[in-house]
Automatic annotation (TrEMBL):
<dbReference type="InterPro" id="IPR009018">
    <property type="entry name" value="Signal_recog_particle_SRP9/14"/>
</dbReference>
<keyword id="KW-0694">RNA-binding</keyword>
<keyword id="KW-0733">Signal recognition particle</keyword>
<dbReference type="GO" id="GO:0006614">
    <property type="term" value="P:SRP-dependent cotranslational protein targeting to membrane"/>
</dbReference>
<comment type="function">
    <text>Component of the signal recognition particle (SRP) complex, a ribonucleoprotein complex that mediates the cotranslational targeting of secretory and membrane proteins to the endoplasmic reticulum (ER).</text>
</comment>
<keyword id="KW-0963">Cytoplasm</keyword>
<feature type="region of interest" description="Disordered">
    <location>
        <begin position="41"/>
        <end position="77"/>
    </location>
</feature>
<feature type="compositionally biased region" description="Basic residues">
    <location>
        <begin position="106"/>
        <end position="121"/>
    </location>
</feature>
<protein>
    <recommendedName>
        <fullName>Signal recognition particle subunit SRP14</fullName>
    </recommendedName>
</protein>
<dbReference type="GO" id="GO:0005786">
    <property type="term" value="C:signal recognition particle, endoplasmic reticulum targeting"/>
</dbReference>
<keyword id="KW-0687">Ribonucleoprotein</keyword>
<comment type="similarity">
    <text>Belongs to the SRP14 family.</text>
</comment>
<dbReference type="Pfam" id="PF02290">
    <property type="entry name" value="SRP14"/>
</dbReference>
<feature type="region of interest" description="Disordered">
    <location>
        <begin position="102"/>
        <end position="132"/>
    </location>
</feature>
<dbReference type="GO" id="GO:0030942">
    <property type="term" value="F:endoplasmic reticulum signal peptide binding"/>
</dbReference>
<dbReference type="GO" id="GO:0008312">
    <property type="term" value="F:7S RNA binding"/>
</dbReference>
<dbReference type="InterPro" id="IPR003210">
    <property type="entry name" value="Signal_recog_particle_SRP14"/>
</dbReference>
Length: 132
């Protein structure tokens, strides 16, 4: 599978903003944000993540759905960029700003139903063995 080309930081932030905006405007849409150290095959295994560049990716949640439906990946959006160790501070400041901005229209999770179910389970009999 051919991987999408890596974007510059500004292109990445622009695409991420668009991705987050479209994801939050739709119902039941997911955006996955991942980061991991970018280790080159020639680099020694003992190198630490602090010295290696980071690979930052963002994908929409359509990839799993598309695989189930005849393996078409038309709806998949995948963007990535590489951040060098000396650029981390500035990158993460902007990254946090963009991520927080994209979370504005998210629906708050309803925890009441889960708490009620948990409470109901505790009241329902204890579940311990008696007379053993």
């Amino acid at each position: 599978m051919a991987e999408s080309p890596r974007l510059t930081h500004e292109e990445f932030f622009k695409s991420l903003t668009t991705l987050l905006t479209t994801a939050t405007s739709k119902e039941k849409s997911t955006v996955y944000l991942t980061q991991k150290p970018l280790l080159y095959p020639s680099a020694p295994i003992t190198s630490t993540a602090g010295n290696s560049p980071l690979l930052i990716r963002a994908t929409n949640g359509n990839s799993k759905d598309q695989r189930k439906k005849s393996d078409k990946r038309d709806g998949r959006i995948k963007i990535s960029t590489v951040v060098m160790p000396d650029e981390l501070q500035g990158f993460f400041e902007k990254y946090a700003e963009v991520a927080k901005g994209g979370m504005g229209s998210l629906k708050k999770r309803d925890r009441k139903a889960r708490k009620k179910a948990k409470k109901k389970g505790k009241e329902g009999g204890g579940g311990g063995k008696e007379g053993v």
